[in-house]
Amino acid sequence: MTFKFQIIIIGIIIISLIVIIYGQYKGKIEYRFALGWSALSVVILVFSIWPKLLEKISKLLGIYDPVNMLMFFAILLLLFAVFSLSMEVSKQSDQIKKLTQEIAILKKEAGDKPETDEKG
Fold it and tell me: Torsions phi, psi of 104, nearest 5?
């Protein structure tokens, strides 16, 4: 990796960390997601500062090429992200269903007419 490319990567990572921290500060991203993205950014930052570390780790794990190790871990990271987001969507879907049921019960107790679709 060339020195110029290292500087570019370090700059991008620092900008991404600033965006993550700002997004968390403004409430646009939850703390647990911000923590995960920040940790990933720090790992990339470490490997961009010390690229030989990546080679040593890949040899230690018995992986022939450091790029193959990066791709493998990137795929694992993406699978984990998709799985955790799927769990979050399922949880929110259950919460929406419960809230809808509670609203229907409250409207029935209050004597309101249920909302109907005007199309049919």
Answer: -65, -40
DSSP structure class, residue 50:
-
Q: Residue 31 is encoded by which pair of tokens?
A: 């703390």
CA–CA dist 46, 52 (Å, integer): 10
Res. 103 pLDDT band, cuts 50 70 90:
very high
d(CA 62, CA 57) in angstroms, rounded, equals 9
User: Judging by beta carbons within 10 Å of its beta carbon (0-12, 13-18, 19+), is residue 44 exposed, middle or buried?
Assistant: middle
CB 57 within 8 A of CB 69: yes
Question: 65 exposed, middle or buried (CB, 10 Å; 0-12, 13-18, 19+)?
Answer: exposed
Give the pLDDT confidence of 50-88 residue by residue, as tens digits. Answer: 888 888 988 998 988 888 888 888 899 889 989 988 999
Classified as helix, coil or strand, 79 is helix
Q: Which two tokens stand for residue 54?
A: 């990546």
